[in-house]
Amino acid sequence: MTNPLTGPQLSRRQLLRAAAAAGLFAGVGTTAACAGPTGLPGPGTLTVALTRSLVSLDNKLNQFDSAVTVQRAVRQALTEIGPDITPVPVLAETMEPDGDTRWTVTLREGVEYSDGRPLKIDDVATALQMYEQVQGSFVASFFPEFPTVVPVDERTFHLDSEQPIPILDALMALILITPAEDNEAAELQEGVGTGPYLVERSNRGAGTYTLVRNDNYWGDAPEVERVEVRFLPEEASRIISVRSGEVDVIDSISPDSRDQLEGLPGVSIEESSSLRLNQIFYNFRKPASNPLSDARVREALSFAVDGESLVKNVFTDAVTAAEGVVPDSLLGYHKTGTYQYDPERARRMLDDLGVGDLSLKIIWQTGEFPADTSVMEALTEMFGAIDIRTELQQFEPGGNILDWRQGKAGDWDLLGNGFSSPTGLAITMLQGMYAGTAAKEETRDTYQGYVVEPVEAKITRAARESDPVRREKYLAEAQQAVWDSWPCAWAFVPKSVLARRERVGGLSLAASNSYPLADVRLEA
């Protein structure tokens, strides 16, 4: 493997600069519908290119950060997470706690779906059931339990639970509402919702969608008439497309791309803090006889990873090394430790534990985070320096990496992956990643097989605590317990960064790496 940290070869940044300057990508074709006579988007069309393929406008099984922009333009929830990480009403007119185990909700009056059907309480009840029942649910992992819907009248209902869920108003922002008769315990392919846009056409395999203004929308009509969503995984194509004006917005740009685009006429960079943690995560489905089932071995391997070099040379200081098990941008974050680079210590610890002749298989999906391939190649060099063999397996978008992650396909040792807290709360990420139980693992509804009973107990205690002071104490204890289990060889916190053409106004990038499409406008 080529070491991206050393040697005389050109860096990715230098290659991109040279290629762009030479116009090597001038042949990138235009596929956006309703383009103008020059091949550029028309005056009423916004073209958005995603770095990962959007396979559904439903979020039950997967919700990468920037997908939220498109999903929430079509489907909506009772609430949404506001800019200050506070839940605000959307389809709910009001949502208030009514005791420790009950919330009372009143639906917004007069809301209809894009096909004219009215929003009903039964739609909310069915949505909760479907999110709970779908196997491998992304969203279900965030709920300590799913509440029961108890109707009061046509618009008012209770959400009752056995134990307190003090952040239920935030969690309900994750449940996208669909007509009950159309919903099922699967990732929906149809796009009927209450949002400001409806789906005119789509190609799930290609990751392309055409959204048009929903004339039946209950809120203020969006200014942009049409949105074209494209999938452009190749970084060079993304740069050239936004430079040329073929694409208006590209998401999740790498440090190299930012360097290419910053300061160019007609292009602006938007940056926000991030709610995401990117990790090199261990496989916790290993048998007891496997060295990786021992937290001491996992800790020893972490000393082989030169995180400082990755931050400086691969990410060009555009990320920060994690100092905890959740990003420091989350409410409820507590610092638990730092990753240290000490390969000699790694060797000694492994020798003392009697671990030798170790081989690691590292898997990841293309586009999981910027510069992902360079990171994996660097890990090969770093582990090789302590005589550990590695094998890299890269999955393309639309592949079967989900089966591998759930332990249904091949075996692996380390996973390059990212995980966000869509509520902006530390407890949500802790619940989703580290609150696995034996019962959840039977249906593969844990995060990479992570089931550590003492950790789950501490997280559950924090999740059910209504008193803010006690909850903070319990959160700190839970996070330290996770850190001490050594779930990651290394982890880092990225920034949310996108590039846009200057004709795009009203775009407000949130820490969730998304933005409300209804607020965007196109300027002449």
Explain what this protein looks like in three dimensions:
The protein has helices at residues 12-22, 67-74, 121-133, 168-171, 235-244, 255-261, 295-302, 307-314, 343-352, 372-384, 401-405, 426-434, 438-442, 453-464, 468-484; strands at residues 45-50, 79-81, 87-89, 92-97, 102-107, 148-151, 156-160, 197-203, 208-213, 226-231, 249-250, 267-272, 276-282, 320-321, 359-365, 389-395, 414-420, 488-493, 496-501, 504-505, 521-522. The chain contains 15 helices and 21 strands. It is globular and about 70 Å long.
Set out the fold topology.
Layout: H1 12-22, E1 45-50, H2 67-74, E2 79-81, E3 87-89, E4 92-97, E5 102-107, H3 121-133, E6 148-151, E7 156-160, H4 168-171, E8 197-203, E9 208-213, E10 226-231, H5 235-244, E11 249-250, H6 255-261, E12 267-272, E13 276-282, H7 295-302, H8 307-314, E14 320-321, H9 343-352, E15 359-365, H10 372-384, E16 389-395, H11 401-405, E17 414-420, H12 426-434, H13 438-442, H14 453-464, H15 468-484, E18 488-493, E19 496-501, E20 504-505, E21 521-522
Parallel strand pairs: 1-10, 1-11, 15-16, 15-17
Antiparallel strand pairs: 2-3, 4-5, 5-7, 6-7, 8-9, 9-10, 11-19, 12-19, 13-17, 13-18, 14-18, 20-21
Helix pairs in contact: 1-6, 7-9, 12-14, 12-15, 14-15
Subcellular location: Cell envelope
Family: Belongs to the bacterial solute-binding protein 5 family.
Protein name: ABC transporter substrate-binding protein
State the total count of DSSP E strands: 21
What share of the residues lie within helices? 25-40%
Summing up helix and strand content along with how strands pair, one would put the structural category as alpha+beta
Please state the overall shape, judged from the principal axes of the Cα atoms: globular
Mean of residue pLDDT values: 89
CA-CA gap between termini: 48 Å
Major sheet, described briefly?
7 strands, mixed
Rg over CA atoms, rounded to whole Å, is: 23 Å
Strand content: 15-25%
